[in-house]
Amino acid sequence: MAPIPHSGHAAVEAYLAEGYSSVVGMSSRFAAAICARLLRLQTEEGVGGPIAEIGAFEGRFFIALAHALEPGEIALGIDIFAWPNPEVKDRFEANCLKHGIAPERRVTIKADAGTMSPAELIGHTGGEKLRFIHIDGEHSRAALSKDLALATACLAEGGLIVLDDMLHPGYPTLMVAVQEYLAANPGIVPLCIIDRETIVGATKFVLCQRDWFERYQAVMLTIFKEQVWPLGADFEPHWCLVLSLDTRLAAIT
């Protein structure tokens, strides 16, 4: 098995080791480490600014992302905060405080992202577009399509969109929404697939602007060399990396 990559941030590493599993949620530690390292890669490539998570729940993944920000950058946590009960918002706030994400580093937004306009969303950042958007909201084809449209309108140059629970057996129609979106937005391409850790810690797709694909991929081949599955992913005709804890190829005899 390949090792979980280093996130590139001491605060993220401490949280992943000591706090991540204690926060209720379903995202994998493997994916959190990769996404935090992608945030560091953006910084190294001169891409800065705020980030957002649609579907923050109790904050497990959000906290990891927020710890990966540079000084002065903020994280937006967006959720309807109604499931499984209204107290989930209080638990989100408490988890952020407990694990070191101070109020001045984040904005909590109780809203349905599907009803938000781009102007409304980036109004929370003073008009600054987002460099990283993690979509983990309502798992329906219609909702994902709306979230993707919002994310694309709010995406900064060099920005990344990360989609949760891709290829999950419980949500087979999400892939239909993704294919329709990619066909309608040729300027956006898959940058990589983050393989599942378990059926709960499911696969994520990372999308980027086409003009940034080669720039990011060239560095990622080195950063994640131990996690690269050799055959990659074929999006017909676009090809991208697959990052996995299990990089074996099937034995053919």
UniProtKB/TrEMBL annotation:
Alphabetically ordered keywords of this record: Methyltransferase, Transferase
SUPFAM superfamilies, per the entry: S-adenosyl-L-methionine-dependent methyltransferases (SSF53335)
Highest rank taxon of the organism: Bacteria
Enzyme Commission number(s) of this protein: 2.1.1.-
Pfam families linked: Methyltransf_24
Gene3D superfamilies from the UniProt entry: Vaccinia Virus protein VP39 (3.40.50.150)
Molecular function as annotated in GO: methyltransferase activity
GO biological process, any: methylation
Main enzyme class: transferase
Name listed for the protein in its UniProt record: Class I SAM-dependent methyltransferase
Organism field: Bosea vestrisii
Source taxonomy: Bacteria, Pseudomonadati, Pseudomonadota, Alphaproteobacteria, Hyphomicrobiales
